[in-house]
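Q: Convert this sequence to structure tokens.
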Amino acid sequence: MPISEKVTEQIKGGSWIRKMFEEGIRLKKEVGEDNVFDFTLGNPNTEPPEEFFEALEKVVAEREKGVHVYMQNPGFIETRRRVARDLKKEFGVDFTHEDIIMTVGAAGALNVIFKTILDQDDEVILIAPYFVEYNFYVDNHGGRRVTVGTNDDFSLNVAAVEEKITKKTRAVLINSPCNPSGRLFSGAGLKELGEMLAGYQRKFNRAIYIVSDEPYRRLLFDGKRFNTPLHFHDNVLVATSFSKDLSLAGERIGYIAISPNCRYKNEIFDGAAFNNRTLGYINAPAIMQRVIAVIGEYKVNVEFYRKKRDRLYDALTSYGYKIIKPDGTFYMFPKSPIPDDIAFIRMLQARHVLTSPGSGFSCPGYFRISYCTSDEAIERALPIFRGVINSIITGR
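A:
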């Protein structure tokens, strides 16, 4: 076999999101791009704010000597200071640049974190539904995945998490607001989680981290406010990026923020800086780091996505779809009208509407709609969503 058996198996069980995206490419060639309605990828479809372009032009125009040479593994100090200052303002937590490591997006941040904190067969609790690539990030670094569910409304089920805690538990990975459900974890739920984990840290004399994946934390609707686990637990490691809120997905710029209250923050900083290099990422993109350091206040186009959410939610629920209304992100996660979510998305696919099955997020019986697409595509797809569920209800 030309590649490893493990990778071969991983490819077979890989992301349904990508599978459906590739299916979309095939369909577009067959029936024309305008006749395929693709709700698979979470690829922002609003442009970055004007402040980004102004900062980019300023940075590119600079001719300062040595600006393109190697930097320290954690990233430029000025960029890290800017991130720390913003976090302190946002959460009231006393971050400094010594708590920040710039990374190649949130995916790079998560891989660096797991490489730093996991020994072989340490357990990471994943809360379903969750982004499928978490499975690979944990496995990349010798960890074992332990999956728990949420409550029926996709809120945090702390009792379910506690049932899975063992002496090998090293981290609980949370994603709020969540891809794919769009749900925000409450402050009360995070407080309960933090208190529970603190008890097991004392019992086992072992750090148990909350790893908080936060690329959507600024994409919240209806006046909702983000609840940070930094207020409820000492050992918190934040992984995030500017991909979603500033529409910079292709620039792969993110960071790790180590809670100033983390009891091993110096060791984690040193380990993460080392792993940033040994994993081959070396540094986050230099130009983007310099842009982030000088960009003005971040302006996130929340209304752009809120209107799409409302249009889809109102229409789909009127047709009979059961949906927990998303608090943020640009996803919604309806219940499949039939138990087999894969069979259901195939019914949509046959009519040129592409979605992703809940099975791909460790939550069968649902399907994900990514509504970062054009309003025209949404309007043209709605009659198809209605027709499919009507055919199921009537048996025709």
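Residues 375-394 form the longest helix (20 residues).
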